[in-house]
From TrEMBL, chain B:
Protein name: Penicillin-binding protein 2
A molecular function GO annotation: serine-type D-Ala-D-Ala carboxypeptidase activity
Membrane topology: Single-pass membrane protein
Main location, first listed in the record: membrane
Organism the protein comes from: Sphingomonas parva
Example of a GO cellular component annotation carried by this entry: plasma membrane
Length: 369, 647
């Protein structure tokens, strides 16, 4: 074994190349949250650290699971997820008003978050069973709609458009990787572009429509609904190359930057550490995703391959949409930055993804030997 | 290999497709990462300056520091209007969240009396949101700091160290200097809603020189940069930019003389104007009674305002500029100049039988003066002479001379308003009444009655121009002015008129009792008595109701040997120039040559009147308040009785 007798085997076999990245990202989150609270462990930094280690432990436990189990239990988990979603809706209705979480006491669990990796497993299992010659047939497509329909409906009822969109994007990317004909995607893209106006005018709620408008022109209403976007760009822009210095960010400390501990934590960090800090974070995320792709590419089994890439894509969409949002390239949708933002549900999802990826990685390495 | 057409898909080719597509997606993610880094670089490098500015705009608030007003000083540099350090507390209505709690707390901290609280509540109700409502001014430091310490729990309360205007001479300079006050809505809008005007503690000139010289006196506001949170809480103070105080405004006024003149007017309603007749410098421009401009600085109380506006002696009107009077006989020196200009020999005699017959109408004189030359006619103020000679000279020459000597004219002065009256002419009457000028109009004009009305400043200007022979322009600001040019009349004419005026005071004239008691300094003058209403029967305005009595006027200059100062004194309803106005003029001119003698004389008067100006004003205010209270009590009992009866 690597590391000889100094390090126990279970520790030494962990994918340290990736774990260092995860530690670095969580540390960046910890420092950012410490600063956002005005130089205080509470209310965000300390819980963030505790949660990180707890969920990391959970991820390592998951990494010991054989990947066949993910395959076998995919539909069981899917059923469980649906029950949780229904439960959420029902409790929300009883409690009065829409709700997207279940209060478990120690954490507010968002079943819609859990649903993301579960759907990846379901799709990976489905496509691993589609015979290669049938991949270009209609029968390779409609079951996906059946799997996706119920959870999407339940999530949209919450209503959580952001999560629903992420699941759809993730599914499309996974179908692309599964080998569905290219013309479907090109045609689909054209169709979506054509349908956008209809969606905008008939399907979106007024506040969602407003968000889109503000995304297109945030300066039009800097104090109203464009406030988030404007203040986020001000935080990043005023940080400059080297930042205002740790704990010196005025946008975050004087509370001009809203949601500085969740969705806009990147802006708060960029204000303190500048372009350099931001680019380091982007590079760390890039390295994390590269590791995920390498796991997927190395996987021998089609299920493992599709699951690994799907999980990597799940993480990717979090990062991409959050970063695009804080830089004013995407509308404001409530999507946190994985491992960095304060908040349990997203971290739980990402840790499940990472745990499963580690499990696949472990299997890859066992195969290699 | 994946083939086009009808591809045969095997597990291997599918794995290959997966790898290829995964690499495409991975590459797309790499491109996106690079794009995000580039976007971030663009925001934080290319647009850094803009966003830095926006970030600073967020966190830094400018709080204006009202500039200190420039001092107003007299010709010797003695202060007339200065600034006093003042701790004050205001409420910004817009930011007041819990009026009741905050007001209660303030009342406790500042020990505000109930009626003050009532006023604050009232003003808060009427306030326009942006306009600070003063809570208390001139606070002791411990009370001020007590509010300062509790500021976090007193939203909307703005304690401030400011400067308030102070006029050491009080009422004596009121009409001349004016006063300052909190800008009103109209003034705020007139200056394009400049934030300075709604800064707590900022005062704007409301009257007099404070108003007309506002821009020069104002100075430039300072600014305090403070860091605030998104919720508006103060984090810390950053730099402070000191205010630039307004420029001092040196006046031609002699502060001592101004105050003396105001005090010497005593309880009379009237004005004193003193001009340096060589330069045009206005040395004194006093109008009494007056208000105390200091009480306007903090906002005047309802009672005070009522008392001032109901006073029949009009303490709110600057009589030196806005009081209009028929000049009466004080007009005669000017008419004499006109007669000389018309070629009348001053030695030509007119017999005064007690009046002048014009057609069927007899124009009265004050006495039977007998044979009069110009000299004696001036000395004894013989109307008959001026009727006869005025008629001979004609209105045109009189009117032209009147205008040349300043009547009907508005002077280039930084004052809020001047009522310039009327110097009538044939053309004027035609225009105004569409009627021809008559002989009797000329006669009336010749003795300063009829259509003629003038203000006291014009009288003083006339006296100055006759005294020096120069075309002096009155002025208030001590700046460089061109020396006045000589008037286009011969020296002998001026000498003739001046010698007549010398005779008025120093010879067999109407103001013999008011000659100066100074060695080697003599005064020339002319008395005047102006009717307030038409003579009814034998009553000539010498008795009866105060407001129907004649005005007493006096114009003068001194020394007669080498004229330097000219003055006009108007005592409203003083019954006669010699009786009421000349003694005041005598003391005022005495002050210019011998302060101690003048002050001694004033001290005696003030003893008789019952105290200094300030003391008497205070006593009057108390008396007025007592009367009001008594009236209210009477009305209250009467009303109560009526109410009881009604039930």
């Amino acid at each position: 074994m690597r590391g000889g007798s100094f390090v126990p085997a279970p520790v030494a076999t962990l994918p340290w190349r990736m774990l260092w990245i995860v530690f670095a990202l969580a540390a960046a989150g910890f420092l950012g949250l410490y600063s956002a609270a005005g130089g205080s462990l509470l209310p965000w930094a300390a819980p963030h650290a505790v949660r990180f280690f707890a969920f990391l432990g959970m991820a390592i436990v998951i990494s010991r699971v054989r990947t066949d189990r993910f395959h076998d239990l995919a539909f069981v988990a899917y059923g469980g997820g649906l029950i949780l979603l229904v439960l959420t809706l029902m409790l929300g209705a009883i409690g009065g008003g829409a709700r997207s979480w279940l209060d478990l006491g120690f954490v507010r669990l968002q079943p819609s978050e859990l649903m993301k990796p579960i759907i990846v497993f379901v799709l990976a299992r489905f496509y691993s069973h589609v015979p290669p010659r049938e991949i270009r047939r209609w029968s390779a497509i409609w079951p996906v709609a059946v799997f996706l329909g119920p959870p999407l409906l339940l999530i949209l009822l919450q209503p959580d458009l952001g999560t629903a969109m992420l699941i759809i994007l993730n599914t499309i990317a996974l179908m692309f990787l599964a080998g569905l004909p290219l013309r479907l995607f090109i045609g689909g893209a054209v169709a979506v572009a054509a349908a956008l106006p209809t969606v905008y005018f008939s399907l979106l709620l007024p506040h969602q429509r407003e968000r889109v408008l503000i995304f297109l022109n945030p300066e039009a209403d800097p104090l109203g609904a464009g406030y988030h976007l404007s203040q986020s760009k001000i935080a990043i822009g005023s940080g400059g190359i080297f930042g205002k210095g740790y704990l010196n960010g005025t946008q975050s400390h004087l509370e001009y930057l809203p949601e500085q501990h969740t969705d806009f934590v990147f802006s708060a960090i960029a204000e303190d550490w500048g372009l350099i800090g931001g680019v380091v974070l982007i590079i760390l995320f890039f390295l994390l995703l590269r590791w995920g792709w390498s796991v997927a590419l190395e996987a021998k089994d089609r299920f493992d391959r599709l699951a690994a890439s799907g999980l990597t894509l799940t993480i990717f969409f979090y990062i991409a949409i959050n970063l695009m949002m804080v830089m004013g390239l995407a509308p404001v949708v409530g999507i946190p930055l994985p491992l960095v933002s304060y908040g349990g549900s997203a971290m739980l999802t990402v840790m499940i993804c990472l745990g499963a990826l580690m499990a696949i990685d472990r299997r890859n390495r066992l195969n290699r030997r | 290999m994946k083939r086009r057409g009808a591809p045969v898909i095997t597990e291997n080719s599918q794995a290959y497709t997966f790898t290829r597509r995964a690499l495409v997606l991975g590459a797309a993610q790499g491109v996106l990462a690079a794009g995000l880094a580039a976007r971030m670089g663009y925001i934080s490098i290319a647009e850094n300056e803009r966003y830095n500015l926006l970030s600073d705009e967020n966190r830094i608030q400018m709080r204006l520091i009202p500039p200190r007003r420039g001092w107003i000083v007299d010709r010797h540099g003695q202060p007339i209007a200065i600034n006093r350090s003042d701790f004050r507390v205001d409420i910004i209505p817009d930011r007041l969240k819990e009026p009741d709690r905050v007001l209660g707390e303030l009342a406790r901290l500042l020990q505000l009396p109930p009626d003050e609280l009532e006023r604050i509540r009232h003003e808060l109700k009427q306030a326009a949101g942006y306009q600070p409502v003063p809570v208390a001014e001139n606070l002791a430091f411990d009370k001020y700091s007590a509010v300062m310490v509790r500021l976090p729990e007193l939203s909307g309360v703005a304690p401030l160290r400011a400067f308030s205007r102070f006029y050491p001479d009080g009422a004596a300079v009121a009409h001349l200097i004016g006063y300052v006050g909190t800008p009103n809505k109209k003034e705020y809008e007139a200056e394009n809603k400049s934030p300075l005007l709604i800064t707590p503690g900022f005062k704007i000139g409301k009257e007099g020189l404070e108003k007309t010289m506002e821009q020069r006196l104002r100075g430039k506001p300072g600014a305090q940069r403070v860091e605030v949170t998104a919720r508006g809480a103060l984090v810390r103070q950053l730099t402070t930019l000191q205010d630039v105080s307004g420029q001092p405004l040196p006046l031609t006024i002699d502060g001592g003389l101004q105050t003396f003149a105001a005090r010497r007017l005593g309880d009379e309603s009237g004005s004193v104007v003193v001009i340096d007749c060589l330069t045009g410098d206005i040395l004194a421009l006093a109008s009494m009674p007056a208000y105390d401009p200091n009480s306007f600085t903090d906002g005047i109380s309802q009672n005070e305002w009522k008392m001032l506006s109901q006073d029949e002696r009009h303490p709110l009107i600057n009589k030196a500029l806005n009081g209009l009077y028929p000049p009466g006989s004080t007009f005669k020196p000017m008419v004499a100049m006109a007669l000389l200009q018309a070629g009348i020999d001053p030695e030509d005699r007119i017999h005064c039988p007690g009046g002048f017959q014009l057609g069927s109408r007899f124009f009265r004189c004050l006495g039977r003066h007998g044979s009069m030359t110009m000299h004696t006619a001036l000395a004894r103020s013989c109307n008959t002479y001026f009727y006869a000679m005025g008629r001979r000279a004609g209105i045109d020459v009189i009117s032209a001379m009147g205008k040349t000597l300043g009547f009907g004219q508005k002077f280039d002065l930084p004052v809020v308003s001047q009522n310039y009256g009327t110097m009538p002419s044939a053309e004027w009457k035609k225009r105004k009444y569409d009627d021809d000028w008559s002989q009797s109009d000329t006669l009336n004009t010749s003795i300063g009655q009829g259509y003629v009305i003038v203000n006291p400043l014009q009288l003083a200007v006339m006296a100055s121009r006759i005294a020096s022979g120069l075309n002096v322009q009155p002025r208030l600001l001590r700046e460089r002015h061109p020396a006045p040019a000589p008037l286009p009349f011969t020296k002998e004419h001026f000498e003739t008129v001046r010698s007549g005026m010398w005779e008025v005071v120093n010879g067999a004239g109407t103001a013999g009792r008011s000659r100066l008691e100074l060695p080697g300094i003599e005064m020339g003058g002319k008395t005047g008595t102006a009717q307030v209403r038409r003579i009814v029967g034998t009553q000539r305005g010498q008795s009866g109701d105060w407001k129907y009595r004649d005005h007493g006027l006096f114009v003068c200059f001194a020394p007669t040997s080498n004229p330097r100062y000219a003055a006009s004194v108007v005592i409203e309803h003083g019954m006669g120039g010699a009786r009421a106005a000349a003694p005041v003029a005598k003391d005022v001119l005495t002050y210019l040559f011998d302060k101690e003698r003048a002050m001694a004389s004033l001290a005696k008067f003030e003893e008789q009147w019952g105290g200094t100006l300030a003391q008497r004003m205070e006593a009057r205010a108390q008396k007025w308040l007592a009367e009001k209270a008594a009236e209210k009590a009477r009305a209250g009992t009467a009303g109560g009785a009526a109410g009881a009866a009604g039930r």
